[in-house]
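Appendix B. Raw example, untouched.
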Amino acid sequence: MTRSLALILIGLLLVIVAPAFAQEDTLTCPALAEQAAQSVRTSCAMMGESQLCYGHEDVTAITSSNLDFVSPGMMADTGEVELVSTGAFDPENGTWGIAVIRLQLDPASMEQTQVLVFGDTVLRNEAFGADGSGFEVSVAGGANLRSGPSTQDAIVGGLAAGQTVLANGRSDDGTWLRVQPEDGDSGWLFAELATTDEDVMGLDVVTELETDSQVSLQNVFLNTAGSDLDCAEAQANGILVQSPPDADPITLVINGAVLTLDGTVFAQSGDQLTIQMLEGTGSILAADETQPLFPGSQVRVPLDDDGSVADVPGAPEAYDEDLLHALPLNLLGRSVTIVPALTEEALANIGTCTVTTNTNVNLRQGPGTNFALAGNLEADATASVIGQALGTDQITWWQLADASWVRSDIVTSREGCESVPVVEAPSAPAAAQVATISYRIDQCGSPGRGIEAGDVVNVYMAGGTWPTQAEARQNASNHSGTITVNGTALSTFAGQHQWGENDWGVKVQANWVASSGTHTVIGTSTINDGGTCTITVP
C-alpha cells in the first residue's frame, strides 16, 4: 500500500463516521459538550499507565490484537495501538469522539504525558509502519529480534527458520532492518540474516527517537479535518498534549517534526502542521531547524502531499484565542489558562531582550508577589522578555516568553530591553479564602456537619507518616496531584497534616466554594491513590 493511498483511507475515516445510536432529539452544543465531558470523566477515571481510553462516542481504534474497541470505558495498551480515529462534533446524533491517551515517554520516570484526541481526527502510530509499506524478508535459520539496531540492545523476540516478515525500516547504514511479524511487536533483525530480492537501502531510515518510541505512540502521524460548525463549544479538531508536571521535557514526533514540550500544546494537521502553545515552554524541530514555542502564539510547519515535513518551521504568529477557549481543556489533568495572543510588537521583540539571573529566582503568574508561583529560574539562566508592566508592589516586572513574570530588579537585563513594550497585566488575585470545612477525597467523607452552599471546602488526600511537623513539611515538596470538581481543575498545593501527637503526614489539597447541586470530585496524587466522590449540596 502506498503512503498516498493510506492518506486516502484516513480521509475516508475522517468523513465516514457512523454513530452507534441516533439521538431522538438533537442536543444543543452546550448539552453535548457537557455530556461528552461527563462521559470521559466517568469512562476514563480508572485508566492505567500507558493506555488508550474510549471516552465518548465515536471512537475507532485499530490494534495489533484486533481488540473490539466499541464503547466508552474500553481500554487498550498504547503498545498495541496502530490507529485512533475520533468522530466530529455532531449535536444531531449526540456524538463527539474523544479518546484519552496516557504515555510514559521517559522510561526512567513513571510520569505520564496526557494526549486528548477529539473531533474529526486520525492519529496513527508510525511504529507499525506508516502504511504497511516495505517488503517481505525471510530468514533461513532462526534469528533474534532486538529492541534496537545493535547487539547491545535487548532481545525482544525471535523468528523461526523460514519465517517471512515485513521489513519497514532500516538503520542508517543498512546493517539492521526493522521488521514487523504478523503476531507480535516490531523488532530489529540483523540484515545479513535476511533474504530478499529487494534493495534494503530503499527502506526509510528509522531515527534513534523512532527506535526508542516504537511501542509508545511517541512517533505519530496526525491528520485533522477542518470545521465550519457554528458551536462555541467545539470549533476545532485535533490533539491536546500536556507534559507531566515537575518532570523533564517530553519529546513527541508528529508527522516527522520533533516536538519538545514542558507544558501544553494544541496540534492540528492538514496542509500544514500547526502547533499552538498554550502554556509552558517548548520547541519544534523540522528540516534541521528548531523554532522555539511561546505561549500566546503558534508555529506552522509546511507539509508535503504525503503529510510529512516539507520545510523549516515558520516564525511565531499570534494564535486565535476564541478557538482555544472552545477546546476541551477541562479534561486535562492540569488546569490551563489561555494567555492573550501575543501582539505584533511582542512577537517582534522575542529574542531582542534577554535577562540573566544571578541566583535562583521565583517566577510568578503575574507582576507581583501576591500572584501564584509559576516556577523558578536557576542561577545563570537566561530568558527572553516580551513585555513589561508595573507590578502590584510598584516595581517593574518583566513578562517572559513563557508568560511568567520576574521582578526586574533581581535579574540582569541585556541590551535591547529599552524598547520592550508595556503590556496589560493580569488582574490581581483575590484574597485567599479560608476553608470552613474539610472533605477527604480518598475516603469520600467529611467530619461533622454536611457541606452547605457557600462553604469554602478544603478537599484533600492524605498519607505518609513522620514524627515531626518539619519532616512532613519537607516531604510535602515531593508530592503533587490533581483535584477536579465537575471536570474543572482546582489549584492544588501540598502541605503537612497532623494525624496525632508526634504523627504527621502530607496532604495534597485545594479549596473549593461549594454550590447547590450534585458534584463529582475526582482526586489523584502521589501520596495515595485518590478517589472519585459524589457530593450533594442542598
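End of appendix B.
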